[in-house]
Amino acid sequence: MSTNNLRQNWSSRLTYILTVAGATVGFGATWRFPYLVGENGGGAYVLLFCLAMILIGIPMILVENVIGRRRASNSLDAFGGSYNGKPVHKAWKAVGWLGLAGAFGIMAYYMVLGGWVLTYIVNLIGGGLDVSQPLGADTTKAFFAEHIHNRPLSVLFYTLLFVLANYWILTKGVIGGIEKAAKFLMPLLFVFLIFMVIRNVTLPGAAEGIRFYLQPDFSKITPQLFVFVLGQVFFALSLGFGVMITLSSYLDKKENLVQTAVITAVVNTLIAVLAGFMIFPSLFSFGVAPDSGPTLVFQSLPIVFSNMWAGTMFAVVFFSLLLIAALTTSLTIYEVLITALQEKTRLPRRTAIVLVLGGIFLLGNVPSVLGDNLWQQVRLFGLSIFDAFDFASGNILFMLTALGSALFVGFVMKDEAREELGSNSRFTGLWFAYVKYFIPFVILLIFVSNLI
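Structure for Transporter, as requested:
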């Protein structure tokens, strides 16, 4: 047990890394990253993503890690207490509140994506989506419209099943539930991922897809694209909504934060890149356009599976992989809200879980599902309810929380932030100056670009 707040610690560095990897490897890596690569020049986007992970990802992981472990508390109280002999002004709690609002926003639509994936798995197994014979784009588009857009009660049912799976694991606690789930689910995800990669890179014509994916077209690399990629890094690493702060609050003081941050970034990048190898070779092998946007996974890939030997089996494995990735992420985002509610109100954990999951389902998941059909006339800033949750959390709340976190480290924690890294080395000094002055400028640049 930790001496601070009698907080449990992760059983080992490996389990912590697996849990953090699970938190960061969700739809961001398996759904969002591939379609953004397809829309933005293939290898050019991949190259910029890897650079952005080094320049922004690792430093920002460290920002949230030092905040979380130093205070060993929920993501609200992490911005309180005192530093360098001075009490922290109450206004800093706003950073924590923005993070919680962002966590609510992402879960409002994220769990619905889980419901979509379950819909596909059930229909693939039950024959509702028959990929045993070649399908056309019209067929997959019609299936998506019929089973996702036009059946809100069905999608809500599958979304609820996904929520209940999270509930079952969360009731077992952070160490007994989330950690154990990560120890089982992350290796399984890797096995499924490698299985799919091997199958797809050995398809006839796969080389063209690999070339598109890895060979940068430098004419497509622009400052605007790089800023766009930087934003994806925040999404991919679950930065800006308290996940890293909450998870690192359970981290032993002996752990090397720099090493764990580097490993986290490497694992996230590796899985995102492998996800591309799982997708693009097969698209090019069967002549499917790679730039179909957010529907790439749901409307384009079924065409690929329908042209593949044992396509149904590979499709079920693929969507199961998506579901596992989504589950490992949703558990940790839920935990941000549960920990804050539980520690601020002293409610029993099970009660806090019911309030968080139930509240998000009623106020977030239900509107997100209905926004595509029964409530499709309801527009927020010209966006559907689903898209509005996505835009507000990803482009506003996460960015402001990340900005506040960097400023908090640079201007409030100061020397205590450097001490938390356990070293007064040149690297620590450079990181601190980088986070204090350069990172806020970059975040503001991303924030403004997202709103233009």
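The CA atoms of residues 172 and 221 lie 47 Å apart.
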